[in-house]
């Protein structure tokens, strides 16, 4: 059978027919649902949403990796609960982009004629699991599989030095991108913070209207960017309200089938959403062997590729979901798409406000996108990423049937690699001129910065640290450096200091010396860097003599 609006056979046209979500807020900890129960509930809701009977025909089942509980072969356990025996049953590795990848691959299987019905689902019960552990409560769940290996995460792919210095978690790596990218765009810290606050306020506004969101409240830009006891600084420049919130109980599921099977099952036409295509690419897993941090070549390649599906214009998408674990990700993405600061970046609410069920947020984003398209939007973009700006996957959904068969080769890795420049060698000791590239300060506990991490470049060439331009000789090397006075100057600077991302190092708490910094002006302190009593408390604890020493070091 051929679709009159498309030359493709209907049994090779994949369509999303059902979406299901569940948010679990138990009154008693022991009553909380385990991830398997959340998965089953979400799938049954997806079937009910479709209006057909499809669960028994599932031939492809993908489960997003979950971290709140550990099972042996969860895909088999879920299939048993549903009474199905899918030919393809897969439980994947860690990755925030994985729901989009699984949806794309499921659509490709249907387009190849390998299965009639496909399901993608994910769930987390981190809120219940955490509360139970703190209260010493044994949950009546499927026994925890202690003999199953823990999923590989960030530390498994990083250099030993990164692990030693504690710079191997998302909260310590994404700030490097934030500082470097804002400098590359010519923003001051104040301007970069204002953009992040406004963007996150938009996410919170959408979450406040989403019945499945964990935090249903709209926050202003000032509330988001101002540190308070309830919104402490996690790692500069990110406060608690600017990072993902994984302490949630959520499950989500999507059902997909062919257009022919959907019509045979009596599913209404207004429930159908078509998969038009997508793209994927990756950065090296070890973030210290990337050429720079102010942009992501795979992200650029993926987003430019899907823009071609929309006629080459990012504004053609009237519904967008940009992954939002940290502000730097959607800020970079919207610029690649050619969208302004007033972009509507989400249909879901973001990982801070909707909630971050770890790897499966984009499952919920896909559910929200389907509802958005059913309610009148015409073309939607789902962009997910995982790791440390590492894995990128985007998918285009539409109310209209595509005019071409779904492409089977979706990698744009070659295009991403084509834009890479040479990567400096990694060393831990070096002499000579040092150029800051990016930095962060973390663990703002009781108004004190406990540690700082910075990235610098050593080179015989000259580079002004006040500007995002770089002039680095070909013999540049990576290095560690330890100067408190330099970090002090960066925090007070009215410009973002960056040249090229090359390394990181801890900052010692030794006394400032005059030769640590030479001929530096004393810029005015931006309000965005000192928004709370926390800064003043930190300065007071340093003492007046300490402040005078640092000031002399800067002015010398």
State the gist of this model.
The protein has 556 residues and is an alpha+beta fold. 32% of the residues lie in helices and 18% in strands. It contains 17 helices and 14 strands.
Which stretches of 5+ consecutive residues score pLDDT under 50?
Answer: 444-450, 456-539, 545-556
CATH superfamily of the largest domain: Thiolase/Chalcone synthase
CATH C-level label of the largest domain: Alpha Beta
- Largest sheet, if any? 9 strands, mixed
Class computed from helices, strands and strand pairing: alpha+beta
In spatial order, strands of the major sheet run: 3-2-4-7-1-8-11-10-9
Which fold name corresponds to the CATH topology of the largest domain? Peroxisomal Thiolase, Chain A, domain 1
Strand content: 15-25%
Overall tally of structural domains: 2
Helix % is 25-40%
Total strand count, please?
Answer: 14
Structure in words:
The protein is of the alpha+beta class. It has two domains: 10-139 and 245-418, Thiolase/Chalcone synthase (Peroxisomal Thiolase, Chain A, domain 1, 3-Layer(aba) Sandwich); 434-555, no CATH class. The protein is built from 17 helices and 14 strands. The chain has helices at 35-50, 74-82, 98-112, 126-135, 160-164, 170-184, 189-207, 221-225, 259-264, 297-309, 328-336, 350-353, 361-374, 413-418, 484-492, 533-542, 544-555, and strands at 14-23, 58-63, 88-91, 117-125, 233-235, 238-239, 249-258, 273-282, 319-322, 379-386, 391-398, 434-445, 448-458, 505-506. A nine-stranded mixed β-sheet has the order 3-2-4-7-1-8-11-10-9, sandwiched between helices. A hairpin with a 4-residue loop joins β10 and β11. It is globular. Mean pLDDT is 82; it is low at 444-450, 456-539 and 545-556.
């Amino acid at each position: 059978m051929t679709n009159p609006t498309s030359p493709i056979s209907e049994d090779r046209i994949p369509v999303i027919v059902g979406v299901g979500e569940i948010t679990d807020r138990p009154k008693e900890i022991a009553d909380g649902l385990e991830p398997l129960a959340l998965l089953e509930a979400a799938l049954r809701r997806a079937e009910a949403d479709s209006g057909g009977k499809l669960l028994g025909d599932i031939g492809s089942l993908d489960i997003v990796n979950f971290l709140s509980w550990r099972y042996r072969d969860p895909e088999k356990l879920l299939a048993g609960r549903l009474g199905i025996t899918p030919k393809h049953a897969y439980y994947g590795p860690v990755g925030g982009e994985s729901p989009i990848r699984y949806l794309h691959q499921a659509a490709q299987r249907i387009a190849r004629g390998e299965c009639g019905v496909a399901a993608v689902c994910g769930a987390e019960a981190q809120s219940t699991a955490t509360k139970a552990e703190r209260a010493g409560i044994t949950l009546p769940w499927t026994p925890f599989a202690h003999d199953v290996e823990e999923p590989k995460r960030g530390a498994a792919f990083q250099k030993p030095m990164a692990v030693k210095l504690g710079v191997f978690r998302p909260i310590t790596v994404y700030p490097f991108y934030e500082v470097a990218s804002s400098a590359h765009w010519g923003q001051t810290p104040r301007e970069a913070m204002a953009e992040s606050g406004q963007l996150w306020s938009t996410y919170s506004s959408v979450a406040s209207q989403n019945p499945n969101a964990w935090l249903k409240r709209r926050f202003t830009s000032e509330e988001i960017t101002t540190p308070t006891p309830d919104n402490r600084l996690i790692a500069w420049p990110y406060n608690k309200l600017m990072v993902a919130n994984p302490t949630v109980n959520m499950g989500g599921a999507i059902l997909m089938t062919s257009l022919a099977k959907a019509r045979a099952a009596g599913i209404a036409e207004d429930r159908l959403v078509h998969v038009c295509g997508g793209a994927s690419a990756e950065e090296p897993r070890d973030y210290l062997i990337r050429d720079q941090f102010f942009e992501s070549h795979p992200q650029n390649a993926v987003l430019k590729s899907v823009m071609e599906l929309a006629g080459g214009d990012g504004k053609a998408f009237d519904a967008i979901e940009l992954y939002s674990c940290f502000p730097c990700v959607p800020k970079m993405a919207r610029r690649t798409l050619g969208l302004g600061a007033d972009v509507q970046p989400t249909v879901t609410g973001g990982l801070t406000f909707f909630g971050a069920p770890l790897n499966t947020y984009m499952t919920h984003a896909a559910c929200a996108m389907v509802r958005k398209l059913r309610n009148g939007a015409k073309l939607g973009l789902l962009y997910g990423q995982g790791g440390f700006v590492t894995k990128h996957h985007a998918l285009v959904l539409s109310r209209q049937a595509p005019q071409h068969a779904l492409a089977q080769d979706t990698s744009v890795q070659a295009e991403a690699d084509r834009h890479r420049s040479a990567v400096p060698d990694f060393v831990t000791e070096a002499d000579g001129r040092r150029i800051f590239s990016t930095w962060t300060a973390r663990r703002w506990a009781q108004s004190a910065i406990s540690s700082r991490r910075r990235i610098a470049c050593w080179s015989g060439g000259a580079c002004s640290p006040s500007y995002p331009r770089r002039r680095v000789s070909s013999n540049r090397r990576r290095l560690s450096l330890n100067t408190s006075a330099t970090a002090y100057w960066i925090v007070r600077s009215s410009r973002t200091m960056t040249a090229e991302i090359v390394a990181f190092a801890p900052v010692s708490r030794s006394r400032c010396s005059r030769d640590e910094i030479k001929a530096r002006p004393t810029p005015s302190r931006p309000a965005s860097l000192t928004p709370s009593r926390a800064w003043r408390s930190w300065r007071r604890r340093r003492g007046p003599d300490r402040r005078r020493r640092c000031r002399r070091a800067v002015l010398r």
